[in-house]
Amino acid sequence: MNLKKLVANETNPESNEALRFIKQLVALSNQTLSKIETAEIKSTDQYNEPNILNPFTEEERTFLKNAFAYMSKLQE
Prior knowledge:
Layout: H1 2-8, H2 16-34, H3 58-75
């Protein structure tokens, strides 16, 4: 929901608010992935079901891409 709010409010992906969100998202992803011992994830393109591994809209994917790129620049 936080991502949807940021995108709906047209938040700048290089803002402090976006940076805080990305850091929280990375921490949550790391926590979740650390609980998966072994998994083989296959493409869901062959099915007529939504891809639960990529539930984001095009606008949300663009926001995430830009925010992650900005965060990477800050860490250089």
